[in-house]
Amino acid sequence: MIRIVKVKNYEEMSMKAANIIVGQINLCPKTVLGLATGSTPIGTYDQLVIACKNNYVDFSKVTTINLDEYYGLDAEHNQSYRYFMNKHLLTKVNIDLHNTHIPNGKAGDIEAECRRYDDLIESVGGIDLQLLGIGHNGHIGFNEPADEFVPNTHCVSLGESTIKANSRFFESRDEVPKKALTMGIKAIMQAKMVLLLASGEEKTEIMKKALFGPITPAVPASILQLHKNLIVVTPIDLA
Ligand code: PGA
């Protein structure tokens, strides 16, 4: 089932998304949150930090599982997703950092790291609420457009449009890692709830394709049409 919550702007999207996450944690303090990086969720994380400071939410029993990490960047690199998550959320709320998980982009044995990540997701009982952004090419996590959906955590080569989009965070395009580790489609689809956020007019076309177009690995987010509990919060006019 898809529920679309139309909001006025990025601020309202962030507030509503944070409210949904706060509600989830209050109902289930041991929630397993699937988390995303990128510009889209930053406002949501800011709101969660405020909610935690005001004692509206308690992260002490929460587990987080991030979608992806660049291959080859260690946790201290200022463009790694571990760095991003610590900066925007994890070190600012009362979560136990031992319960926060992100693929290890520096793992020596990438295959083993991918299996470890899938085992980890299984061992915590799967994801309760998965927060998602969407790439301009329809990617979710780093599940890039492809000929088939990949179920498990895997190493991907990033597409040109992703490298271009993400180069805004690096000194130059050459510095953007060309590969990443990403959670696969299975763990995302098995999440009990998916919260998809998108803002900016330039995402209108891809959001329409994802939510109303054919379900195809060429638009990875289109698989979400089959999710049993998808909530979309967006200021984008999808009519
Ligand atoms: P963005 O990235 O939030 O920076 O637009 C979204 C994504 O690539 O998933």
Identify low-pLDDT runs. none
Q: Approximately what portion of the residues adopt beta-strand conformation?
A: 15-25%
Strand order of the largest sheet: 1-10-9-6-2-3-5
Mean pLDDT: 97
Helical amount among residues, as a percent range? 25-40%
The figure for the number of domains is: 1
Bound molecules: 2-phosphoglycolic acid
| Alpha-beta content class | alpha/beta
Largest sheet: 7 strands, parallel
CATH topology: Rossmann fold
What CATH architecture label applies?
Answer: 3-Layer(aba) Sandwich
Overview of this protein structure:
With about 240 residues, this protein is an alpha/beta fold. The chain has one domain: Rossmann fold, CATH 3.40.50. It is built from seven helices and ten strands. The chain has helices at about 10-25, 40-55, 80-90, 110-125, 160-165, 185-190, 205-210; strands at about 1-5, 30-35, 65, 70, 100, 130, 155, 180, 195, 230-235. A seven-stranded parallel beta sheet has the order 1-10-9-6-2-3-5. It has a three-stranded antiparallel beta sheet with strand order 4-8-7, covered by helices on one side. Helix 2 links the parallel strand 2 (about 30-35) and strand 3 (about 65). Helix 1 crosses helix 2 (about 40-55). The protein is globular and about 40 Å long. The model has no long low-confidence stretch (mean pLDDT about 95). The structure holds 2-phosphoglycolic acid. 2-phosphoglycolic acid binds near residues 38, 133 and 134.
